[in-house]
Specification:
Blueprint: H1 8-16, H2 26-36, E1 43-47, E2 50-54, E3 62-68, E4 81-83, E5 86-88, H3 92-108, E6 115-121, H4 132-139, E7 148-151, E8 159-161, E9 165-174, E10 178-179, H5 189-192, H6 194-201, E11 207-210, E12 213-216, E13 218-226, E14 232-233, E15 236-245, H7 251-261, E16 267-273, H8 283-292, E17 297-298, H9 305-310, E18 315-318, E19 332-334, H10 335-349
Parallel strand pairs: 3-6, 3-7, 7-18, 8-17
Antiparallel strand pairs: 1-2, 2-6, 4-5, 5-19, 8-18, 9-15, 9-16, 10-14, 11-12, 13-15
Helix pairs in contact: 1-3, 3-10, 8-10
């Protein structure tokens, strides 16, 4: 039984002790649903192993608070333990500490200043097709409509606004096979890749200032594949590149830019996910920054805030824990972060 009347540290520990690797979230979703249903101020809905709870008080604004219930596979790091002012255990950092803060808000805030939609969703840590928030955005986008959203991913208990877009592509070179002892009879596809690498070496990444935040872009080779045998001149080579682009670029603009950089070479796009604008000019965002007294930072990387941006909802990342500890065997969340995030969220929403 998950008791949301207990303090945020105890709730975090209880959540950690419920195993919930991706595709195995039924038990934790059942516990979250059972804990929220008695809250008379909330309407509670269930979609697979995603739980949505919302107030319907007729407020002028609505905000969404979200967090995923799943974790990466265990690494002999269950159950939880506490030491040095930290809660250790699988998912403590990514992101059961953030979920605990959201659940405590859902339980305690019976008459918030804004209507709130809480979304605790499944399958964030695996292939995007299974992501519970993505499914909700497709099947029930009305439930995600809001003036502002907070994704409680670990962010050192600070505000990381928006997120970068990400594009991965395979750049191809071709050649002609020959025996390496008679290399002049062939054409080396790996050698031909030198021009692609030179373009990357001379590439100057763009910086974009959005809402006063500087988003740094990057275009990098992240893999190279080629070769047939040690005595064969290769006839094919593939370089995988990753373009992290500022959220003021659309996926189409990002693709056009990469095509321009590698003009003359065949290219296959593996994935292209849009970024999220920070939207810090919105009154709800300004109120949030005031309540948290945070100096916002740009989010370098991609998170599910992108889904909110696609729906026209400005969003930020704000949660307890160091993002660099995500997915590590020794992950933990500082108790100080849990208490700070809970207090600041409560202050904002009251």
């Amino acid at each position: 039984m998950l008791d949301l009347s207990q303090d945020v540290v105890t709730v975090t520990a209880a959540l950690v002790d419920i195993p919930s690797e991706s595709h195995q979230e039924q038990r934790i979703a059942d516990a979250v649903e059972a804990a929220l249903v008695p809250c008379e101020h909330l309407e509670v809905l269930r979609f697979g192993n995603t739980v949505v709870a919302r107030t319907n008080l007729g407020r002028d604004q609505r905000v969404v608070i979200g967090g995923h219930l799943d974790t990466v596979p265990a690494a002999d790091n269950l159950p939880h333990h506490m030491a040095n002012g930290r809660v250790y255990g699988l998912g403590a950092n990514d992101m059961k500490g953030g979920v605990a803060v959201g659940l405590r808000c859902a339980h305690e805030l019976t008459s918030p200043s804004r209507d709130i939609t809480y979304v605790f969703y499944e399958c964030e840590e695996i292939d995007d097709t299974h992501n519970g928030l993505r499914k909700l955005a497709v099947e029930r986008p009305d439930l995600l409509q809001a003036d502002f959203a907070v994704l409680m991913e670990p962010s050192d208990a600070g505000v990381e606004a928006g997120c970068q877009g990400t594009l991965r592509a395979h750049i191809h070179t071709d050649g002609e096979r020959a025996h390496s002892a008679r290399s002049w009879l062939g054409r080396n596809a790996i050698h031909s890749a030198a021009d692609i690498l030179n373009r990357l070496n001379s590439y100057e990444p763009r910086r974009a200032v959005i809402d006063g935040l500087t988003y740094r872009e990057g275009l990098n080779a992240v893999g190279i594949e080629g070769g047939v045998a040690t005595n064969v001149i290769p006839d094919a080579c593939v370089i995988t590149v990753n373009y992290r682009y500022a959220p003021d670029r659309s996926p189409q603009e990002a693709l056009a830019h990469v095509e321009e950089v590698f003009a003359g070479y065949p290219m296959d796009v593996v994935d292209n996910s849009p970024g999220a604008l920070p939207g810090l000019h919105h009154p709800a965002a300004q109120a949030f920054l005031t309540a948290t007294q945070a100096v916002p930072r740009p989010k370098f990387g991609w998170t599910d805030v992108s889904r909110f941006s696609a729906l026209g909802v400005p969003a930020v990342n704000f949660g307890p824990g160091d993002p660099s500890l995500a997915h590590t065997k020794g992950e933990y969340v500082p108790i100080e972060h849990l208490q700070k995030c809970e207090a600041e969220m409560m202050q904002w929403l009251r």
